[in-house]
Give the backbone structure.
Amino acid sequence: MSAVKGNKTEASRELGIGLKTLYRKLKL
């Protein structure tokens, strides 16, 4: 269970970073 939770957190973090990068690119 802990491993799954950790994976989910990492995926969410990567998603957030990706969204921020996309937002910046779109703004530019």
The CA atoms of residues 18 and 24 lie 10 Å apart. The mean pLDDT is 85.
